[in-house]
Amino acid sequence: MSEVEVKGSSLVQSLKWRYATKKFDATKKISAEDLHTLMECIQLTATSYGLQPYKVLNIENTELRTKMQVASWGQSQVVDASHVLVFCAYTAITSDMVDEYVALKASTQSIPLPALKGYGDFMKSKIDAKSPAEILDWNARQIYIALGNLLAACGELNIDACPMEGFEPEKYDELLGLPTKGLSSVVVCPIGYRSAEDATQNSPKVRKPLNELFETI
């Protein structure tokens, strides 16, 4: 078996192992090393133009997490998980943001900044053509790519995760002071280790068969 096949098999097994954890063991914490790995996996996510139009908040404040639980329909994952990641989309993409990205690209790839002016202007023209609602929706879609990377990485590290849309974004935004930062909460993902009391870990995955999910044309 080739190295590629081994890696693929390992990833599939990791994805079969993971599930949306409903109850975390509050006594178990993710190591700093593993947390850094997960952050890198999010950082390396593909995004449109490479702009990364979002920010991920790592909520460690226990008092704040208790308030967030109230805005999360009382779900215990928000308080019991080792870490709680809140993915927030920028509500706008400004010319300054594009200029900062172009400057970073120039310095990282050793490209003269003037040579990228056309690329920057092209991005600005496409972004300016979008309405504020379209920008927010576009940015939010980038977040779900990052969330997918996080879930796969968690599976590889045997770290549990529970992606959640079951919360009140307006209340999260208020609690986290997001409007003043030009951000809006999109999805929450508590991460940590499953509790032995979480019965859902023993439930078989419910997925469409491959021949129904895929069609060759």
Question: How does the SSE layout of this entry go?
Answer:
Blueprint: H1 3-17, H2 32-43, E1 54-59, H3 62-70, H4 77-80, E2 83-90, H5 95-108, H6 117-128, H7 132-156, E3 160-161, H8 169-176, E4 183-192, H9 210-213
Helix pairs in contact: 1-7, 2-7, 5-6
Write structural notes for this entry.
It is a single chain. The longest helix is centred in the middle third of the chain and has 25 residues, at 132-156. Helix 1 (3-17) packs across helix 7, helix 2 packs across helix 7 (132-156) and helix 5 (95-108) packs antiparallel against helix 6 (117-128). It is globular, with a radius of gyration of 20 Å. By secondary structure, the chain is an alpha+beta fold. The chain has 9 helices and 4 strands. The chain starts with a helix and ends with a helix.
Structural features:
4-stranded antiparallel beta sheet, single chain, 4 strands, 9 helices, disordered N terminus, alpha+beta
Helix percentage:
40-55%
Shape estimate: globular
* Low-pLDDT residue spans: 1-6
- Indicate the proportion of strand residues: 5-15%
For the secondary structure, the number of strands is 4
pLDDT averaged over residues: 96
Report the total helices.
9
Instruction: Indicate the structural class.
Output: alpha+beta
Gyration radius, rounded: 20 Å
What is the distance, rounded to the nearest whole angstrom, between the alpha carbons of the first and last residues? 29 Å
- Order of neighbouring strands in the sheet with most strands: 1-2-4-3
Reading the helices and strands in chain order gives HHEHHEHHHEHEH
The profile of the biggest β sheet is:
4 strands, antiparallel
